[in-house]
Amino acid sequence: MSIRLTRPLRAYALAAVVLGLGAATILPSEVEARTLRGGGSMSLGELRGELVEIGVPVPTGATIARGVSRLAEEAERKRTRFPVAGEFNWGQSGARFGAGRSGHVHEGQDVFAPTGTPLLSVADGVVLETGDDGGRGNYVAIFDPAARRTYFYLHMVEPSRVPAGRRVRAGQPVGGVGCTGSCFGEHLHFEVRRGRDTAGPAEDPLPLLRRWADLAGAGPTLPPGKS
Ligand SMILES: [Zn+2]
């Protein structure tokens, strides 16, 4: 009985090891992951040994790599969400990260969706800040400790549903799409900033958003609108 209990936990640990590599396209000869205990490394042989031990049949290195990648994808699917729970589109060139704005550069990706479309926390995290200022409108910033990133949701229709300091889970509703603040056309302005820092360096959110949409089986089905 104790073995049955430990198997899924160890499988999950292996998935976490591979996720640490971002190894969706991992090659068998390249499997070398840091262990969860930190510092050490795990060779393909050791990984194979672990899988044999937990009862996974492992005839080839390629099979191991495929299985671990599937495991990693499933774990990723469980711990992330696409932030917009409804029909959306990516807008046009002006909606992209780095697009020109008067006096500054666009530091997020705009995701267009009807007002009131629920907005979900993309990961487990903690609310760093909420507010309602002139440009950002109703907004919430959530820190994701696993990824060491801070996510911003701007222009929400109403103030954040979760206060600063509150922990949130992936998929938890945090607000709704709106057009408060400096906004033309109802949309979510989504920002990704490095670290536990609402002013950390901004990164292009689009690759992450596309990945989360793929994992959720979601796609841009809303007819293109203004951006
Ligand atoms: Zn924007």
Descriptive overview:
With 227 residues, this protein is an alpha+beta fold. The protein has two domains: 2-79, no CATH class; 93-216, Glucose Permease (Domain IIA). It is built from four helices and 13 strands. It has helices at residues 2-19, 44-53, 61-79, 206-216, and strands spanning 33-34, 41-42, 100-101, 104-105, 109-112, 118-120, 125-133, 137-144, 149-156, 167-168, 173-176, 187-194, 202-203. Strands 5, 7, 8, 9, 10, 12 and 13 form a seven-stranded antiparallel β-sheet that branches. Helix 1 packs across helix 3. Zinc ion binds at residues 106, 108, 110, 189.
Helical coverage, percent range: 25-40%
Bound molecules: zinc ion
Say which CATH homologous superfamily of the largest domain is assigned.
Glucose Permease (Domain IIA)
pLDDT < 50 runs, ≥5 residues: 1-9, 19-39
Mean pLDDT over all positions: 81
Number of domains: 2
* Span between termini: 57 Å
Computed structural class: alpha+beta
Biggest pleated sheet? 7 strands, antiparallel
Topology (SSEs and partners):
Layout: H1 2-19, E1 33-34, E2 41-42, H2 44-53, H3 61-79, E3 100-101, E4 104-105, E5 109-112, E6 118-120, E7 125-133, E8 137-144, E9 149-156, E10 167-168, E11 173-176, E12 187-194, E13 202-203, H4 206-216
Antiparallel strand pairs: 1-2, 3-4, 5-12, 6-11, 7-8, 7-10, 8-9, 9-12, 12-13
The structure holds zinc ion.
